[in-house]
């Protein structure tokens, strides 16, 4: 692939900053999300651990003298390093010995079994989570509204999205996989189906070397897809699976979910627990999400036309798409993303909280008819928050599948997903 064909990623700049501050950078994320391509763009030499011509010799070298694999111009990329976990300690030692920044980039699409990254590497490694492409990165959002600028107080927005509902449905089913973005429609849609089949039949078992029943994995993924963007319990998932006459225990569901997390397929959205003015009971369950909404459409065996005939499902999957994009944009401005829901049913689909304490509440609504209700929910939530402890909301936003971005008289921002960027 030529240099000019590389679609730049928002995390390119994050990677350069990490290389300037740390001896090594660990890039983690789902398979096919673009880790290797992005890392190789920044690297001066590369070691591909999965190269079939050399894998066995690389493994033998890792077992006898791993430092030999680290020789090369820096930054040196070690792709899929977890195939030889000993490389983690070898890189850590080499970084200490050299005493310089920007020495190594490690990429991995699975967390190693013994989780070696959890207890070593402090001060030597910078960690970076990479997700599939956002709509801004795939050039489908025009980026006329900046999340960072909104946090900076620039709320005077006027913009227009060119993304129709039909284009949104297609983007959902295609997903943010870099290799699919420039393909024709049929090929692009097939990629997400191939991804799901690889997860079911190979990846989920390979991550911990524990064989898993492919049919159970498929049914689990299907239940997660049906319950995407909800707080579905383990019992709900179990009932879904057992409705097909296949029995499964809570322990098995939990172990399968853990394997899916370790290969970055599942990425649930945690609950936000703010200080409230009154004693409001906040629900603490995470929302069920995949790293990319196309995983849900693939496992549900639907396509853009199917979604356009089922607006309820399209609405949940649109929230999943917005969650993916907001997570990517928030990461670039040093923020985390949560959801809020209390016992009264009051909710905010997305809460973005920056490291400096600033926060914003976002409701996701596909159609314009729901904007008024979403706006009122946001204003009620704002009134419930103890602003003496939490600070005032930087902004309240309804994120839509519509055309126009504007600021309402009550201050609530209406922003199409096709206008947003970091």
Question: How would you characterize the overall build of this protein?
Answer:
- The protein is an alpha/beta fold and 422 residues long.
- Helix content is 40%, strand content 16%.
- Helix 6 crosses helix 12 and helix 8 crosses helix 12.
- The strands form three sheets. The protein has a seven-stranded mixed beta sheet with strand order 7-12-13-11-10-9-8, sandwiched between helices. Strands 2-3-4-1-5 form a five-stranded parallel beta sheet, sandwiched between helices. Strands 6-14 form a two-stranded parallel ribbon.
Task: Summarize this structure as a short list of keywords or feature phrases.
2 domains, alpha/beta, 16 helices, 5-stranded parallel beta sheet, 422 residues
Brief summary:
The chain has 422 residues and is α/β, with parallel strands linked by helices.
The assembly state of the depicted protein chains is single chain
| Class from secondary-structure proportions | alpha/beta
With strands numbered from the N-terminus, the spatial order across the biggest sheet is: 7-12-13-11-10-9-8
In total, the number of strands is 14
Fraction in helix: 40-55%
Main sheet, how many strands, which sense, barrel?
Answer: 7 strands, mixed
Portion in beta strands: 15-25%
Uncertain runs are: none
Q: How many separate domains?
A: 2
The termini sit apart by: 27 Å
Indicate the mean pLDDT: 93
Could you say which overall geometry the principal axes of the C-alpha atoms support?
Answer: globular
Number of helices: 16
Order of helices and strands: HEHEHEHEEEHEHHHHHHHHHEEEHHEEEE
- Cα-atom radius of gyration: 22 Å
